[in-house]
Amino acid sequence: MFDTLKIINDTAAFNRWAGFEVTRAEKGEAELRMHWRNEMGQYSGFLHAGMVAALLDTVCGFAAATVSGRVLASHFSVNCIAPAVGQVFIASGKVVKAGRKQVFASGELYADTDGKRKLVATGNAILVPVETSEIT
Amino acid sequence: MFDTLKIINDTAAFNRWAGFEVTRAEKGEAELRMHWRNEMGQYSGFLHAGMVAALLDTVCGFAAATVSGRVLASHFSVNCIAPAVGQVFIASGKVVKAGRKQVFASGELYADTDGKRKLVATGNAILVPVETSEIT
Amino acid sequence: MFDTLKIINDTAAFNRWAGFEVTRAEKGEAELRMHWRNEMGQYSGFLHAGMVAALLDTVCGFAAATVSGRVLASHFSVNCIAPAVGQVFIASGKVVKAGRKQVFASGELYADTDGKRKLVATGNAILVPVETSEIT
Amino acid sequence: MFDTLKIINDTAAFNRWAGFEVTRAEKGEAELRMHWRNEMGQYSGFLHAGMVAALLDTVCGFAAATVSGRVLASHFSVNCIAPAVGQVFIASGKVVKAGRKQVFASGELYADTDGKRKLVATGNAILVPVETSEIT
């Protein structure tokens, strides 16, 4: 499962650009890490909301993929609860309910600065399993 | 207003990386454009959900900035309604209600291929005005 | 279509309790009305968030039913943008995209006081078509 | 805190109609219960989405009230992950982050049938503290 997610992750050009790294994968759960780079900032220098969403959506999708194979996000939402500032960002996702037509997953995004971890955003995603189960 | 949004847009490192271009700004409304590049893709080659979110969140924030000055997104949601494939992506946002504490905005994302425009995603954002009104 | 929605509406016990009335139905669109009663209030006397959600979710579902037959809501969200106070509440919904697996719809809720109409909430819903197409 | 929430709950006419009962209240957490009645059903006889939303929104608001006093919901979202069928419904909510301008809370709704409990919906809410802190 871990290896499968790593392969999917490497297949996505944006994930490679961002330096997403799959650090954990279990049945219904996944974790991603990303190192901060200046080009990821919004106008105040915080992590751009798009990057926050990218991490949360991806980790929810990866968590879903561990139980439902190939999926596509149809809906996701993000709560930005603290300024997303840190050297490393860690996103963890878990499946809330895996249905045949829809998989519900939720995620949390932490910012790590000098080993101190802070919750900066939470998210929810609805993923739709796609027919060709190429990735499991 | 147009010039102010262009300046904010140029201030954000991620927006520069992505090549966001402010193409319209009116009281309560804004429009952004972005050219597709391969490094923006997810594993199927569609525009990455994070880029979809970045465009929608940014255009909602810009629409809010035209009426409420400096804002930060506290919540946003995205519906992915069609594969985000195109040469150019156009995001338009408008303010639904500008309150003192919260601004509600909604946005639409279109993909343009050879001049044919298709709606690929819709979004909503809640923006919080921040005290220092530096940007208006 | 109008008659079909009226029949579905009468089938739902909660809709009868609340006095929901279908006032418009077209391909991809629907409108509902409800008269305020005291037992619908939250602690400040505004319309309860649950009633706001009930109206928006129902009208989105009815709009979806006009194009996709029998549906069930899997996700909905509500923005409360002004105090929901009025004598009559009017909810209108429209389909944004009707897919095979998911129908995306959006809605608006207005409060009417002495003929003056005010937008009090907006909403989005994702509806899943269910196999037995009993209602169309 | 428990007594305060009970008083607020009794103040809301809709909560009285629905028979909401506050069964737990701690710093940042709350629990509600409600007995099923036929008039709460949608067209298939499941608990109406509006009632699902009412329970989740209310329990999130109550959890927020334990830390931030009087609040009003500005946004909430609901995922319907299983048919909401049961004799008793139990909603639990907790505060994710209590800011000065916005409180983020999340909730879960369980349906209980003959003592067997099933997760039927999850939700998120953003609550805005209101100035007059009457209720704490």
Explained architecture:
Four copies of one chain form a homotetramer. The longest helix of chain A has 20 residues. The mean pLDDT of chain A is 95. With 136 residues, chain A is an alpha+beta fold. A six-stranded antiparallel beta sheet of chain A has the order 1-2-4-5-6-3. In chain A, 57% of the residues are buried. Chain A contains three helices and six strands.
**Sheet with most strands of chain A:** 6 strands, antiparallel
CATH superfamily label of chain A: Hotdog Thioesterase
CATH fold label of chain A: Thiol Ester Dehydrase, Chain A
- Terminal residue distance of chain A: 8 Å
User: What structural class do helix, strand and pairing data of chain A support?
Assistant: alpha+beta
Give me the CATH architecture of chain A, please.
Roll
Q: What's the number of helices of chain A?
A: 3
Rg of chain A, rounded, reads 14 Å
Oligomeric state: homotetramer
Strand arrangement within the widest β-sheet of chain A reads 1-2-4-5-6-3
Count of extended strands of chain A: 6
Q: Which CATH class of chain A?
A: Alpha Beta
Offer a quick outline of the entry:
The structure is a homotetramer of 136-residue chains. Chain A is of the alpha+beta class. Helix content of chain A is 26%, strand content 43%.
